[in-house]
Amino acid sequence: MTTRVFGALVRGVIEPSILVGIIAYLPVGINADAAAYPETYSYAYDADRISIRLAKARGDWWARSREQSAAVSSREAGIAVSTALAMVDGARGGAGTGAALGRLARTTVRSPELSELRTFCAAVELGSLGRASVRLRISPQAVSKRLLSLEALVGVRLLTRSRQGVRMTRAGRALYEEAAGLLANADALQRRIAGLAGEHAPVRVAASPTIVDCVLPWQMAAMERNCGFRPTLELSAVNSAAAIRLVAAGLVDIAIAAVDDGRPLGDLVELPLLRDEVVLAVPLGHHWAAMSEVPTRAFLSTPLVMRDPESNTRRTVERALREEGLELAPSLLELGSTVEIREVARRRRAPALLSKLTVAGVEGFVARRVAGLKFERYFSLLFAGETSLGPDARALIEHLRKSASV
User: Cα–Cα 20 to 30 A to 140, which of 26, 29, 146, 377?
Assistant: First the structure.
């Protein structure tokens, strides 16, 4: 059985003269053995205790090895296998995309994320970034961010974009053929794992980009360190209003969102998580960086880089100003992601409105308040009720409340 599972993942890619791969799933009883030829190069990739070893053929069969690992999600398995596919293609000495991916796998600090490959395939199949965002239940900005990240990782353009939609480049077509098969196998493996251990099904979480970028990565690592495990997440990075709609509709298990005062939440349970503040992210070199606080008049008359009007960051500032009978100057630029805002603000040396969490410790920026004003908000955990949650979701909520709450 395990030989057939592994064979399905790499069929048509690895020839008898090149072998590589050891993936072991101890908790679900899936183990795979493989013998490898020595010499030329070897590569080890460890993503939460998955190991992949690769070697190019030179000589006789010489060894068998087995590596066993602790619990691991199908997503992480997919990431590891995608690395294997890329490296084998490069190891064969193929030109173009294959060779580029082979070189990439040996030198990059990370491998393609399954979410990036899924977004890429959705855009190809639907021919539109907007339709891909609807299928994946993430914002169009998140779709663009994932695709740009994947293209930066691969080192070549994968899609051409126009008003009519998107089309694959030659490199994109080569990647799509491999990625589509990989995703199908990853989905099948996920269903198999869910059937063997239903209580460990992925926890579906919709969260603000601020939480996704600045809170969850560290909290998930802390959960594994302190609790001995961490649940697999199906994560949607959307603005707070969209996250609340998703959990209310039952499309996710948990939302982590900034909740507007007085906003009706229906039957949702709300647990306060952490306090945040919207501040001015001021690039070093801008004259506001030398001030302890920015004068109110200067703030109100200066065009700023900021989030879109639907974001809670923007609404928090506008609500506080309305209470004082004030309003913002027209924006310099409106963008959908924190990363884009910081990049534009740095390049133009223009102040931006951002969460304090996203500015702290970021090179090239200082956080500044506006004199006489404070733009505070709170992030909360929202879900339909304890009985609607599996054990992993409940454990995640308990950890976040103990560890992240301030």
Answer: 377
